[in-house]
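The instructor's notes for this session suggest beginning with a concrete chain rather than abstract definitions. Hand out the sequence below and ask the class to guess, before any prediction is shown, which regions might be ordered.
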Amino acid sequence: MRPSRSPGNVVAAEQVDRTEASLARRPRDGALFVAERQGQLVGFVTCFVAEDHFELVRPEVQIRDMVVTRAVRGQGAGRRLIEAVRAFARARGIGRVTVTALAANESAVAAYHALGFRLAFVALESEA
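After discussion, reveal the predicted structure:
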């Protein structure tokens, strides 16, 4: 797994800055939410409004990146971040939030299931 997909106990401020700068360059409606504990950054989630190409006109909010440090996993930070994304979607009249995770990232997949996400799409890949 790439190091960027398995952060340690600290979320680097530079990682959040890069993500925020990336969102600022996009011509779409997006947001960055952060989780803090005792003044320390312990997680973040980025999301944006996207066209759902399978249903052609129904927009959705897609989670682009989500990180919660190992030290605080299972303590509600991820749930609060997801609730912020859901509120962002509802404020725009959007009724669906989607997220993708690497199939090998079983802990993330399990966390998303526990947060109410269900399997909706299957992505396959091959060598070029």
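Then share the key points. Residues 106 and 112 are 10 Å apart (CA to CA). The two ends are 19 Å apart (CA to CA).
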